[in-house]
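Bumping with the actual sequence this time:
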Amino acid sequence: MFPGRGSLRMQYAPRMRHLLAAFVAAIVVFFWGFMSWAAIGIWDFAFPRAGNEALITETLKSSLAGDGAYVVPFMPEGYGQPTGDEAKQAEFAAFEERHRAGPFALILYRASGSEVMPPSELARGFVIELVAALLLACILSTVRGGFGRKAFVGFTIALFAATACYGVMGNFMRMPLPFVFAFWADAIIAWTLATLVIAKLTPSAR
């Protein structure tokens, strides 16, 4: 026998609620990002203004080959491996001296310009957040318990993901602490808000 309409609705209703919860959560994350970064500027302290921007721009254009992530000073090929080549030893020693003396820079560079926050960029950002919210909803759908339990698990996921990503990257790439803290805290707040939405709108696992 084929299932009736009532049984089909019962079968697909939880999935639709998870999709709806993820969609609403993505809207909340998107709105929070707009408010915290653009409207209120909570994290402005993470981006001090550079002096002589025109000179920096011209130097980057003349010094960098194209789009990429550039590290200065650059680690020589074979660094850290034993070698009897005196030229290589001198190159390694010079690199270590520059590294100790500073400055150290990680340059995220795009040669081509663009409009400020074009609609396509906003659309891509929302799609990414929607996919992430769907993944979060899938995880939370397996949690046994009510709102409080899901909220705790979701907050733990946000804390883990932000620390594993921004904490590790900030440490090994020697990023400034205000920059790392801003992205770390923003991710935790945004995805905790998403967790609360998903926990509220989805049924409890049994």
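The tokens above came from a reply further down the thread. The helical segments are 5-39, 53-63, 86-101, 119-140, 147-172, 177-201.
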